[in-house]
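step=encode ok
step=design start
structure_in=
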């Protein structure tokens, strides 16, 4: 009995050790603040940091609300990331933040909490409710074709 328990324990240790080594060897793309929206863009980590940087730099803050498992978010992200003009504009003219969670600022969800949603906060820290997309039921929704100039 003792020998079979010892053999089973050694087998479990060997399997667990090999599994841990295999997981460590697996190549994973490092997660960046861009989350695929544009690696050349400087992104802030939090809404509060974005507000601070907007006020300090006198640039508007662009807040992108999205989820990884949302097909519409993924399509918008792809169009946003592949458009060089948008990437340059985002890098040079805005403080950029993308969020996969809601903020405590209720001004960023005036017509609901849906994704994708893009909102702008001007340097005076006022949420720009006048900058909207083309849908009356989801004012701050944008689609890939909206990324074309």
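sequence_out=
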């Amino acid at each position: 009995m003792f020998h079979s328990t010892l053999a089973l324990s050694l087998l479990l240790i060997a399997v667990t050790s090999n599994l841990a080594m295999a997981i460590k060897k697996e190549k994973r793309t490092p997660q960046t603040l861009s989350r695929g929206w544009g690696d050349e863009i400087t992104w802030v980590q939090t809404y509060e940091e974005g507000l601070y940087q907007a006020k300090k730099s006198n640039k508007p803050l662009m807040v992108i609300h999205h989820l990884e498992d949302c097909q519409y978010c993924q399509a918008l992200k792809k169009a946003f990331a592949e458009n060089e003009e948008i990437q340059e504009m985002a890098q040079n003219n805005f403080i950029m933040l993308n969020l996969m969670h809601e903020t405590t600022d209720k001004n960023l969800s005036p017509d609901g909490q849906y994704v994708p949603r893009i909102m702008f906060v001007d340097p005076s820290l006022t949420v720009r409710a006048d900058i909207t997309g083309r849908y009356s039921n989801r004012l701050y929704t944008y689609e890939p074709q909206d990324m074309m100039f």
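step=design ok
step=annotate ok -> The first strand starts at residue 61 and ends at 65.
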